[in-house]
Amino acid sequence: MPAAWLVLPTYNEAENLERIVRAALPHLASAVDDPHILVVDDGSPDGTGDIADRLAAEFAEVEVLHRTAKEGLGRAYLAGFAEALAAGYGRIVEMDADFSHDPAALPLLLGTDADLVLGSRYVRGGSTVNWGFGRRALSRGGSLYARTILGVPVRDLTGGFKCFRRKVLESLDLGSVRSTGYAFQIELTYRALRRGFRVVEVPITFADRRVGQSKMSRSIVLEALWKVWKIRFDPDANPH
What we know:
Blueprint: E1 4-10, H1 17-31, E2 35-41, H2 48-58, E3 62-66, H3 73-86, E4 91-94, H4 106-109, E5 116-120, E6 127-129, H5 133-150, E7 162-165, H6 166-171, H7 181-194, E8 199-203, E9 205-207, H8 218-233
Parallel strand pairs: 1-2, 1-4, 2-3, 5-8, 6-9
Antiparallel strand pairs: 4-7, 5-7
């Protein structure tokens, strides 16, 4: 089975990081021969980086990329992708570090031959838990809004639980990606679709974080609303 690198971006995840790493490793190991976890920490003031270093000393499968400032989820993922590609890994997985994505679903994402696999809340079998009506409406409405403007069939465009084959990331011109937050997830999936890659959605259950502070903000939501239009007409996202 091909090797895979799981990229975990962190900022102030001291309460979650050790548990998520210990939970994810056996699921990764059950799906691939060479599991690897890269923690990308954006200079967390709560000591997350120190915990990551301790885990890296304990587990040969864990590495840490320390960044000096919080630059947003998109920048953290791009830095992690660059490390994974340079290391030669064939598949690269995105996953949140706060248990909103269930590590037990990792074999499902790694178990298809698709070019990009999306963990989806909005296909048959997918769901959300611990969400109020407003959060559910915002998320579903945001995906519908983006899907309509971009003209793509993907039902969960804003999700962040994904598995890329390296050829996808190598083709996406990652240096030209400027989005962060929800818009980052939308843009990468759209770029993959526009380049003709096979994208599939598999059902997941998304659980709102129970420990730590949510990174959701009004600015992230507003960015996604206007960035969808930029993505739609961006020549870097729409190859000829």
